UniProtKB/TrEMBL annotation:
<keyword id="KW-0349">Heme</keyword>
<dbReference type="Pfam" id="PF18011">
    <property type="entry name" value="Catalase_C"/>
</dbReference>
<dbReference type="GO" id="GO:0004096">
    <property type="term" value="F:catalase activity"/>
</dbReference>
<comment type="function">
    <text>Decomposes hydrogen peroxide into water and oxygen; serves to protect cells from the toxic effects of hydrogen peroxide.</text>
</comment>
<dbReference type="GO" id="GO:0006979">
    <property type="term" value="P:response to oxidative stress"/>
</dbReference>
<feature type="active site">
    <location>
        <position position="159"/>
    </location>
</feature>
<feature type="binding site">
    <location>
        <position position="369"/>
    </location>
    <ligand>
        <name>heme</name>
    </ligand>
</feature>
<feature type="binding site">
    <location>
        <position position="172"/>
    </location>
    <ligand>
        <name>heme</name>
    </ligand>
</feature>
<feature type="binding site">
    <location>
        <position position="123"/>
    </location>
    <ligand>
        <name>heme</name>
    </ligand>
</feature>
<feature type="active site">
    <location>
        <position position="86"/>
    </location>
</feature>
<dbReference type="InterPro" id="IPR010582">
    <property type="entry name" value="Catalase_immune_responsive"/>
</dbReference>
<dbReference type="InterPro" id="IPR041399">
    <property type="entry name" value="Catalase_large_C"/>
</dbReference>
<keyword id="KW-0376">Hydrogen peroxide</keyword>
<dbReference type="InterPro" id="IPR002226">
    <property type="entry name" value="Catalase_haem_BS"/>
</dbReference>
<dbReference type="Pfam" id="PF06628">
    <property type="entry name" value="Catalase-rel"/>
</dbReference>
<feature type="binding site" description="axial binding residue">
    <location>
        <position position="373"/>
    </location>
    <ligand>
        <name>heme</name>
    </ligand>
</feature>
<feature type="binding site">
    <location>
        <position position="380"/>
    </location>
    <ligand>
        <name>heme</name>
    </ligand>
</feature>
C-alpha cells in the first residue's frame, strides 16, 4: 500500500470512483485520504489484512474469510519448476545495434540497416546449481540473448565457452545427471568436484577439450560484464537468393576479459553469494551500461571441407587466428527488469527461434536442442501459451490460428480460425516473406553412429592448454587437482590422468604428483592415433585479452577516522578519471571523520567488505587508526588476501605496520605501491589497468603445492 497520499493531479475519476495511478501506470482504488486501497485479486477492497476472520477473539478461524483463503492459495502456488539446468540466472534488457548491412550473406532483417537498434533481453546463468546457489561456483555461464526482431524473435542461446562436453544431444541427460548433486545424498550443490561428474567425464573422451576450458579461469569470471559469449554451433546465414554461408557467433566484452582466482571465488561466495547479480545491477543502475560486440566467423563449404575438424562437431572451435572474427554490431544492456519473476524467470529461450535468414547446421547437438527447449517451457511455464507473456511475445506484429489452452490471453476474434478459408479472413502464408529452410541436399542410410570426422578429442584440448600464459596453466593444473581431490574413487582419478597424458605430459604429471599418484597410468587409448600439433591461439587466453585500463573495476579503500582527506580525494578522482569505482571500507559502516573534519560515508564495515570484493585495494588509515586495525583480524585478512590474490595494493606510509602484520611487508613487490601525493595516486591507478601481479603467485603459493 502506498504510504503517501497521492496528489490530486494523479487522480482520475472513472465510473464515479476516484482512482489513482500506480508506479507502472496501473489504476488503484483510492481511499478518502488518498491512499491506494488494497484489494483481493477480484478487486474487492480489503478492510483488514492483519487478522483472519475468527469466531470470538480467541476462537477458531472462519472458512468464510475469502480474502485469507485467496491470499494463502496464491502464495502456495507462487513457485514454478526451476530450470532443469541453468536454474540460477540474472537478466537485463537492452538493444543490439547493427554496424553494416549483411544483406550479401543473410536476409535476417536485423542485419540489413546500419545503425538500426533492436530490443533484446539477455539472461546469464550458471548451469549446475539450483536457483539459490552462489554466483561464483566454478561453472560454465549461460549467455542467452533474445532479439525481438521485426521478423520474429531470434534466440541465440549460448555459453561463455565456445565448445561443449558432448557431441550428441542424446548424452545431455547423462551429462547433467552426473554433474548435478548425486541423487542419493543430494550434494554437492553447484559443484562438479565429485565422483559422478568425473566418472562420466573420464568415460567420455569427447569432453576433454571442454574440460580444459572449465578447469581454466573462464568458469570463475570476475563479472558477467567481463566474459565472452559464444553461439557454439555452426549456424547458417541464408540470403535472399537462398544461398548459405556458415557462421559462428562470438560476443566480445568491451571492457576486456577478467576472472578471479579460485581461492578468491571460494571467499566471494561467502562474502556475497550474489556477487555477479549485484555487479550487473549496480553497473546498469548507475548508467555504466555493459557492452559487447557481436562478431562472426563466416565461411563456405570449401573452407569447411578443408578445415582440420568437422564444423558440425560442437567440441571444436575455429581458432580466430585461422578465421578472424568480424565485428557486426554491438549489444548494450541498459535496463533492469521491473520484476525478476515476470521477466528473468519466465523468459523462455529456444534455440529453434530463428527469423528468416538464420538457419541450422546438422550439428547433432543443435538438432537435439531444437527439440528440448520448446518441450521444457511447457513444463516450466505450465501450458502452451507462454508466448503470451510479455517477455516472450514478439514485439513485431504476429497473426496465427493457435487458440485456447491454459491462460489464453490472445484469442482469435471473429468466426474464422483456420486456413485456407473462403471468407477471405485471417492471415495467409507468404512465399516471399516467410521463413524458408535452407534446401540442403541430404542422403544416406539411417544409422546410429558417430562420424569418423568427430574422432579427434585431444588436439584442440592441447591447443587450448598451450595457448595459456604460465599463470593460467598453473590454474588449470590446480583446478584439476582440486576437483579430482574430491573424487573418492582412485580409479576415476587415474582414468582422468590417463586422458591428460594425451593432452600434455607436464599437465598430466603435475596433476598426478599433486594427487599423490605414484606412477603415471598408461595414456588413454585415443580414437585417433596421432594427435595434431596445432599452433597456439593467443585469443584463447584471458590474460592476453584483459582490459587496457581500470574502467568498470572497483578499488576498495580501507580508511579510519583521521584519513588524509586530500590524499583520498586525489586517489578517488584518479580512479574516477579511469572510469573505475571507489568504495570505502571503514571500522564503522557509517563512515569516518577525515583529517579536515569532514565526515565521509563508507560503503562497508571491514567484516562486510573483505578485499575479495574489489579488484585492487588501497590502505589509507591515519596513524591512530592503524593501531586499532592491527588488532582486527579482519583488517589483516583484508591485506593478506589482497596480496595472496595478486592484487595491486596502494598504501600510505603510516599503513606499513599493517602490511607487516599481514605478513606482506617482507615480500613487497612492484604491485605494492606507496601513495603519498596526487602524483603517486595517479601512478598507482595507471598500474591498476594490469589488474593482477601474477608473477607474485608462486611466492604466495596460491597455486603451487
Ligand atoms: Fe541448454 C537451458 C545453453 C546444450 C537443454 N541452455 C539453457 C540455457 C542456456 C543453455 C544458456 C539457459 C537459458 C535461459 O537463460 O533461460 N545448452 C546451452 C548450450 C549448449 C546447450 C550453449 C550446447 C552448446 N541444452 C543443451 C542440450 C540440451 C539442452 C544438448 C538438451 C538436449 N538447455 C536445455 C533445456 C534448458 C536449457 C533443458 C533448461 C531450461 C530451458 O532450457 O529453458 O531445455
Amino acid at each position: 500500500m502506498a504510504k503517501t497520499a497521492k496528489p490530486a493531479t494523479d487522480q482520475v475519476a472513472i465510473h464515479d470512483q476516484t482512482l489513482s495511478r500506480g508506479q507502472g501506470g496501473e489504476l488503484h482504488q483510492t481511499a478518502e485520504d488518498g491512499y491506494d486501497v488494497l484489494t483481493t485479486s477480484q478487486g474487492t477492497p480489503v478492510a483488514d489484512d492483519q487478522n483472519t476472520l475468527r469466531v470470538g477473539a480467541r476462537g477458531p478461524a472462519s472458512m468464510e474469510d475469502f480474502h485469507f483463503r485467496e491470499k494463502i492459495f496464491h502464495f502456495d502456488h507462487e513457485r514454478i519448476p526451476e530450470r532443469v539446468v541453468h536454474a540460477r540466472g540474472y537478466g537485463a534488457h537492452g538493444y543490439f545495434e547493427t554496424y553494416e548491412s549483411l544483406a550479401k550473406y543473410t536476409r535476417a532483417d536485423v542485419f540489413q540497416r546500419p545503425g538500426e537498434k533492436t530490443s533484446v533481453f539477455v539472461r546469464f546463468s550458471t548451469v549446475a546449481g539450483n536457483k539459490g546457489s552462489a554466483d561464483l561456483a566454478r561453472d560454465v555461464r549461460g549467455f542467452a540473448v533474445k532479439m525481438y526482431t521485426k521478423e520474429g524473435n531470434w534466440d541465440l542461446v549460448g555459453n561463455n565457452i565456445p565448445v561443449f562436453f558432448i557431441q550428441d544431444a542424446i548424452k545431455f541427460p547423462d551429462l547433467i545427471h552426473a554433474a548435478k548433486q548425486e541423487p542419493d545424498r543430494a550434494f554437492p550443490q553447484a559443484q562438479t568436484a565429485h565422483d559422478n561428474f568425473w566418472d562420466f567425464i573420464s568415460l567420455t573422451p569427447e569432453s576433454m577439450h571442454m574440460v580444459m576450458w572449465i578447469m581454466s579461469d573462464r568458469t570463475i569470471p570476475r563479472s558477467l560484464r567481463f566474459m565472452e559469449g559464444f553461439g557454439v554451433h555452426t549456424f547458417r546465414f541464408i540470403n535472399d537468393k537462398d544461398q548459405s554461408t556458415f557462421v559462428k557467433f562470438h560476443w566480445k566484452p568491451k571492457l576486456g576479459l577478467q576472472s578471479v582466482a579460485w581461492n578468491e571465488a571460494v571467499k566471494i561466495n561467502g562474502a556475497d553469494p550474489d556477487y555477479h547479480r549485484r555487479d550487473l545491477w549496480q553497473s546498469i543502475q548507475s548508467g555504466d551500461f555493459p557492452e559487447w560486440e557481436l562478431g562472426v566467423q563466416l565461411f563456405d563449404q570449401e573452407f569447411a571441407d578443408s578445415f582440420d575438424f568437422d564444423i558440425l562437431d560442437p567440441t571444436k572451435i575455429i581458432p580466430e587466428e585461422v578465421l578472424p572474427v568480424k565485428p557486426i554490431g554491438r549489444l548494450v544492456l541498459d535496463r533492469m527488469p521491473d520484476n525478476f519473476f515476470a521477466e528473468t524467470e519466465q523468459v523462455a529461450f529456444m534455440t529453434q527461434n530463428v527469423p528468416p535468414g538464420i538457419g541450422f547446421s546438422n550439428d547433432p547437438l543443435l538438432q537435439g536442442r531444437n527439440f528440448s527447449y520448446l518441450d521444457t517451457q511447457l513444463k516450466r511455464l505450465g501450458g502452451p501459451n507462454f508466448t503470451h507473456l510479455p517477455i516472450n511475445a514478439p514485439k513485431c506484429p504476429f497473426a496465427h490460428f493457435q487458440q485456447d489452452g491454459h491462460m489464453a490471453m490472445r484469442n482469435p476474434v471473429g468466426r474464422v480460425n483456420y486456413e485456407p478459408n473462403s471468407f477471405g479472413e485471417g492471415p495467409r502464408e507468404s512465399k516471399t516473406r516467410g521463413y524458408r529452410h535452407f534446401p540442403a541436399e541430404e542422403a544416406g542410410a539411417k544409422v546410429q553412429l558417430r562420424p569418423e570426422s568427430f574422432a579427434d578429442h585431444y588436439s584442440q584440448a592441447r591447443q587450448f592448454f598451450i595457448s595459456q600464459t604460465p599463470p593460467e596453466q598453473r590454474h588449470i593444473i590446480m583446478a584439476l587437482t582440486f576437483e579430482l581431490s574430491k573424487v573418492e574413487t582412485i580409479a576415476i582419478r587415474e582414468r582422468m590422468v590417463s586422458h591428460l597424458l594425451n593432452i600434455d605430459e607436464t599437465l598430466a604429471s603435475e596433476v598426478a604428483h599433486r594427487l599423490g599418484i605414484k606412477s603415471l597410468p598408461k595414456a588413454a587409448p585415443a580414437a585417433v592415433a596421432t594427435r595434431q600439433d596445432l599452433e597456439p591461439s593467443p585469443a584463447l587466453s584471458i590474460v592476453e585479452r584483459g582490459p587496457k585500463r581500470f574502467e568498470g573495476r572497483k578499488l576498495g579503500v580501507l580508511v579510519t577516522d583521521g584519513v588524509d582527506a586530500k590524499l583520498l580525494k586525489s586517489l578517488t578522482s584518479a580512479v574516477l578519471k579511469e572510469k573505475g569505482l571507489v568504495e570505502l571500507v571503514a571500522p564503522k559502516v557509517a563512515g569516518v571523520t577525515a583529517s579536515d573534519g569532514s565526515f565521509i560515508e563508507a560503503q562497508h564495515m571491514i567484516d562486510g567488505g573483505p578485499s575479495v570484493l574489489f579488484d585492487a585495494v588501497a590502505l589509507l588509515p591515519s596513524e591512530a587508526g592503524v593501531e586499532d586495525l592491527l588488532k582486527e583480524a579482519t583488517a589483516r585478512d583484508f591485506v593478506a588476501d589482497a596480496f595472496q590474490h595478486c592484487k595491486f595494493i596502494g598504501y600510505s606510509g603510516v599503513a606499513l605496520p599493517l602490511l607487516d602484520k599481514a605478513g606482506v611487508e617482507k615480500d613487497m613487490d612492484e604491485g605494492v605501491l606507496e601513495i603519498s601525493s596526487a602524483t603517486s595516486a595517479t601512478t598507482f591507478v595507471e598500474e591498476l589497468g594490469k589488474l593482477r601481479v601474477w608473477g607474485r603467485e608462486p611466492s604466495v603459493k596460491l597455486s603451487s603445492a
